[in-house]
Amino acid sequence: MIIEEIRAAVAAKSSALVRRSAEDMAALIHPDFLYVTAGGKTLTRADYIDVAVNGRVIYHAQQARELEVRLFGTTAVASMLIDDHYAIEGREVSETFYGLSVFSWTDGRWLWAAGQTMLPKQP
Amino acid sequence: MIIEEIRAVLAAKASALVRRSANDMAALMHPDFVHVTAGGRTLTKADYIDVFINSDRVVYHSQEVRELEVHLFDAVAVATMAVDDRCSIDGREITETFRALSVYTWKDGRWLWVAGQTALPRLP
User: Fold this and answer.
1) Using an 8 Å Cβ cutoff, are B60 and B53 in contact?
2) Complex ipTM > 0.90
3) Which residues make beta-bridge pairs with B53?
4) Average pLDDT over residues A22-50
5) How far, in Å, CA of A69 to CA of A9, rounded?
6) pTM for the complete prediction?
């Protein structure tokens, strides 16, 4: 099922983050990738790898839940909750983000093509 | 160019919001539409039209899009943008800039809005 294929792609991304593998992460991301961070910054594939893998953010764990996937031709759109546990400049952060991700079926596999992560506004 | 086509869809959506036209909005959206609001609520197409058009709670005065960037993946366009909203919620006037990711699919000779997420920038 598509949802299990997307779950596997999301898990592989989380694993690459925790292992800090820029090579594995690059293999999972479409060259035309664009991503909007919770802070509102737009990143390319190279930017994302610089920030999330090579940079000052150290991921300890990332778990996706409440995954929902819709298929539009060769593109899958996934909404999810993401439980992140990471350190940034020595400060430990445990937070649940809302994620919307787009995956493109390319050369026989799902590549992460776009995404946005956010913290819901405070009531 | 694709970016101008998506800009036109966004303008049509903003117009439908301000005119409170459920029919025009429905025509712009895919039946399998999904949207995550800045408050973290997931909406279907019917939910979105109920909340933003049919409900008396939210009344749009204007919506402007800036910093639009569009990438094409086969028959799907992914757009990022800043959205300047001016609306009232329960009579309270709101002027706010959101960051948004929107997804469109090419169907029957036009772009349909299939998914989106709107966020107020906020870091932990």
Assistant:
1) no
2) yes
3) none
4) 97
5) 12
6) 0.95
